[in-house]
Specification:
Elements (H helix, E strand, L loop, with lengths): L10 H8 L6 H6 L2 H11 L5 H12 L3 H19 L5
Helix pairs in contact: 3-4, 4-5
């Protein structure tokens, strides 16, 4: 299945993920979205935090807006621990 067919992700997300070797939905669903976000950040500064919310939402089959609303603090703390929290 194509990444763009997952809830909350589209062609732009699919293109960005392909740059780090994630070519299909199965690979995305099996990966740690935080690690994927960190890899994307290293390649392209300014990667939106919404992409991380969308990847988590795709894995959990819920809207990225719900992830942002309910888990933003938890997500930002994890990113801070990883050294890749947005400024």
């Amino acid at each position: 299945m194509e990444i763009a067919k997952l809830k909350g992700l589209g062609p732009k997300s699919q293109q960005m993920l392909a740059q780090i070797g994630i070519e299909n939905a199965a690979q995305l669903l099996a990966a740690d979205p935080f690690e994927l976000y960190a890899q994307l950040q290293r390649q392209q500064r300014g990667v939106s935090l919404n992409l991380l919310y969308a990847m988590i939402g795709a894995q959990e089959n819920c809207p990225w807006q719900q992830i942002k609303r309910e888990r933003k603090t938890e997500i930002l703390l994890r990113l801070d621990e990883m050294g890749c929290a947005p400024d």
